[in-house]
Amino acid sequence: MSDCLFCKIAAGEIPSKKAYEDELVYAFHDIHPLRPTHVLVIPKRHIASLAQVTADDEPVLGRLLAVAARLAAENGSPDGFRSIINTGRVGGQEVAHLHLHILGGPEPVGPMVKKI
Ligand code: AMP
Ligand code: ZN
Asked: What share of the chain is helix, strand, coil (3-state, %, to 5)?
């Protein structure tokens, strides 16, 4: 997708603080970290959100989760982490390219969601 921020980051057209890369996924530090560890993992190929995935995407979805623990441990969160995928309007997704948030640090991340 030519006009997608995270496609441009994955392609190196927009700078990012890289944490990891392989043939399927790219990981980088969130520009506005919400916790001491805040890494985003994205598929290199454009997928708009978890609502748009197809069976063809299963390998990349597996890789997204498979690299999470290692990325957390290598980036200041060795004792666990929170992983979040926001999807669509109700999920609060702001960037329309599927991404896995990895949040952590030395202290617990806190409650999963606030009661409304
Ligand atoms: P979401 O609300 O789940 O769509 O999360 C989007 C995330 O992307 C937010 O946490 C932003 O801080 C982050 N973000 C937006 N632009 C950039 C960028 N250029 N580099 C790194 N992270 C970004
Ligand atoms: Zn994209």
From this structure: 30, 20, 50
pLDDT of residue 1: 64
Residue 113 counted as domain residue: no
Q: Which of 38, 97, 99, 101 is catalytic?
A: 99
Q: How do 18-21 and 82-84 pair as beta strands?
A: unpaired
CATH number for the domain harbouring residue 75: 3.30.428.10
Complete DSSP assignment for 5-17: HHHHHHTTSS---
Q: Among 55-59, 97-101, 110-114, which is the least confidently predicted range?
A: 110-114
For the chain, give me the number of helices (H) and strands (E)?
4, 5
Token pair in block for residue 50: 């978890």
- Give me the residue label for tokens 């060795």: 78
**Among 49, 95, 98, 101, which is best to mutate for testing ligand 1, by the most ligand atoms less than 8 A from CB?**
95
Average pLDDT in the 43-66 region? 98
Compute the distance from residue 95 Cα to the ligand 1 centre, in Å. Answer: 7
